[in-house]
Amino acid sequence: MALKKEVKLKWWDKIYLPAVLKGMGITISHFFKTLFTPPSKRYTIEYPDRRKEDIPEWYRGLHRLNTYPDGTLKCVACYCCATACPADAIYIEAEDLEDFDKEYPKEKGPKVFQIDLHRCIYCGFCEEACPKDAIVLTNHYEIVHTSREAGIFGIEDLIKTKREGGE
Ligand code: SF4
Ligand code: SF4
């Protein structure tokens, strides 16, 4: 049985004015607090004039497709990442390779590997699901596009992703 608690509102509660004034008081107090706090101690970073330098390694930003030292993609087009992705953001087309004479032989690889960054929720499930350490989320956070098409990253884009401040 659901329990109901009846709240009796007084007339000044019903006109909502005290609640509005209380809310405005909190906003104004924060305004003055921020105004008199030195910029170095403020939480807000005035991006892009100032950039956050200490992005933690565990931050889940732009993806990178990893390669072996000879440039071969580690990805074997197993579809584990695409299957694990809750946002349906990964699209893969596999191709047979049979590169058995190479230093890093592969039976299969991705002909097409795309991530729709507009759909991605940066959960990291793709990285968790990958059996080959082929996809990682880096701490690169500057992800800007001016069209939907530009937000779909393919193999060449994803290979180039660098971490903030380094590889
Ligand atoms: S981070 Fe999450 S939502 Fe984004 S591509 Fe990977 S699994 Fe999908
Ligand atoms: S990135 Fe990893 S999980 Fe995704 S298809 Fe390639 S090997 Fe499989």
Descriptive overview:
- A 3-stranded antiparallel sheet has the order 2-3-5. The protein has a two-stranded antiparallel sheet with strand order 1-4.
- It has 2 domains: 9-44; 63-160, 2-Layer Sandwich (Alpha-Beta Plaits).
- The chain contains 5 helices and 5 strands, in the order ααβαββαββα.
- It is elongated and about 85 Å long.
- Helices cover 23% and strands 14% of the residues.
- It has 167 residues and is of the alpha+beta class.
- The chain starts with 10 loop residues before the first helix and ends in a 7-residue tail after the last helix.
- One iron/sulfur cluster (SF4) binds at residues 84-87, 89-90, 115, 120-126.
